[in-house]
Amino acid sequence: MKLRPLRAMTTLICVAVATATLGATAVAAEPGHRHQPKIVTDWAAAWNGTDPEALGALFTADGTYTDQAIGVTLRGREEISGWKARTDSMIDNAHATIRAAHRDGDHITIEAVYSGHIKGAPKPFAVPMAVLLDLDSPRRIASDQDYYSLNAVLAQSGLPADWTPPTS
User: Fold this and answer.
1) pLDDT per position as a tens digit, 129-154
2) Do 126 and 153 contact (CB within 8 A), yes or no?
3) Sign, Cα dihedral of 120, 126, 128, 129
């Protein structure tokens, strides 16, 4: 994937706006009755649901999901479904609450709140998140990039900044 300077600048601005708008300790309230593109509501339903394969099914066969906070990229439906399963095994009530979505052709920017409770952590978290989706058709995601602050997740959860998940 080529990085285009204008798109990169737009990404940074969207992340800054989402962070400023939602604040450092956003509350995961339900959004107003706004019409969202179907792929956005499907994406949120898959993340908020219990079937990991529902998330993978939204992607092209060679689609990518990148969690920028963790620094990991998954390729293909199986790996993406596996990432959702791993998330669910580590975070109770992992949830994405959509605040807004903006579409420009095959590019969608989502402003959301990412929330949950890391198993074993003293407190739950709710942090602003920006998501960039590139589509290859109206119903398939070719690329998903999620941006949120891992430091904010750990701080709100009551975990040290150098915390890492258990390996077992």
Assistant:
1) 999 999 997 789 999 999 999 999 99
2) no
3) positive
**How far apart (Å, rounded) are the C-alpha atoms in residues 143 and 108?**
10
What does the pLDDT read at residue 50?
Answer: 95
Q: Provide the pLDDT for residue 167.
A: 74
Q: What are phi and psi of 167, to 5 degrees?
A: -85, -10
**Spatial separation of the C-alpha atoms in residues 12 and 31, rounded to whole Å:** 23
Edge-first strand listing for the sheet containing 59-67: 72-75, 59-67, 140-148, 125-137, 107-118, 91-104
What single-letter DSSP state applies at residue 29? P
Query: Do the beta carbons of residue 63 and residue 80 sit within 8 Å?
Result: yes
Q: Are strands 125-137 and 107-118 parallel, antiparallel or unpaired?
A: antiparallel
Q: What does the DSSP assignment read for 118-139?
A: ETT-SS-EEEEEEEEEEEEETT
By the 8 A CB rule, do 158 and 78 touch?
Answer: no
Task: Let me know: does 63 contact 83? Beta carbons within 8 Å.
Answer: no
Q: What is the pTM of this model?
A: 0.79
Q: What is the pLDDT of residues 49-108, one digit of tens each?
A: 999 999 999 999 999 999 999 999 999 999 999 999 999 999 999 999 999 999 999 999
Q: Are 127 and 154 in contact (CB under 8 A)?
A: no
